[in-house]
Amino acid sequence: MASPPSSSGEMGQPAQSLVGKVILVTGAAKRIGRGIALRLAAEGARVAIHYQRSEDDARRTAKDCGGAELFRANLESVAEITRLFGDVEHRLGRLDGLVNNAARFTRFDPLEITEKDWDFIHSVNLKAVFFCCQNGARLMQKAGGGRIVNIGSLGGIRPWAEHAHYCSSKAGVIMLTRALAKALAPAITVNSVAPGVIPFEDIDERGKQLIEVTPAGRGGTPGEIAEAVVYFLKASEFVTGQILAVDGGLSQR
Ligand SMILES: NC(=O)c1ccc[n+]([C@@H]2O[C@H](COP(=O)([O-])OP(=O)(O)OC[C@H]3O[C@@H](n4cnc5c(N)ncnc54)[C@H](OP(=O)(O)O)[C@@H]3O)[C@@H](O)[C@H]2O)c1
Fold it and tell me: What pTM was estimated for this model as a whole?
């Protein structure tokens, strides 16, 4: 006779609550980062809002998150990243989660791109993500564990001819996620959400064309990216090193 499903292994463990968790979101002033911050605040997390230039938007997002703490840093600089995480520890006492959302996006013919153009993208999209993970993981170890979610891109999975530099930075984020998942297991999980086209007012013709061929028949929303981020933040340590494309099926074309 089968025994009733009584153990937590058979029933599955309830998802972790985010209530009271300290979670830093980089580039959280507007657009996708704002959407993630608002959702985390709605889940009861103590959100730390990072921004660089968009101070007014950051203040609005912090207010809409119920009075979240604000942190300014230029993520191109490892010294500023170290100071940022020191400030988070000093002001919030701990770090339970990190969402690496800040990034840059440019378009160049690969035959024309310069060293400066290359570094402009990689300094933020890849180098900063690594050093934020390093600094964040050191704090999370003090808290007994944590969750890191790196925001990648469909461009890190599919090749885009005029974005070779951007695609390689986001492909780097995917491998960083997988390698750090191994390095930091089991206490800290590292996963990645790869958005498809999430349109805003500055969408260009290429973005519109990508939406036209998206199987879902539309672009995505910051709320849909936030939903995937919340999944990884709440999941057990058994979910790590994973890349979740939230792209309306565009990666399947
Ligand atoms: N939108 C899309 O369709 C799409 C598609 C695929 C992937 N993604 C990814 O999703 C994430 C969010 O996308 P998004 O379109 O919302 O991003 P975004 O508006 O282009 O950038 C997010 C924030 O990154 C911050 N940032 C840039 N350089 C920085 C630096 N040197 N130091 C500190 N912060 C810096 C900026 O903060 P400040 O404004 O405060 O300076 C900016 O608001 C990114 O990782 C992006 O690659 C987006």
Answer: 0.97
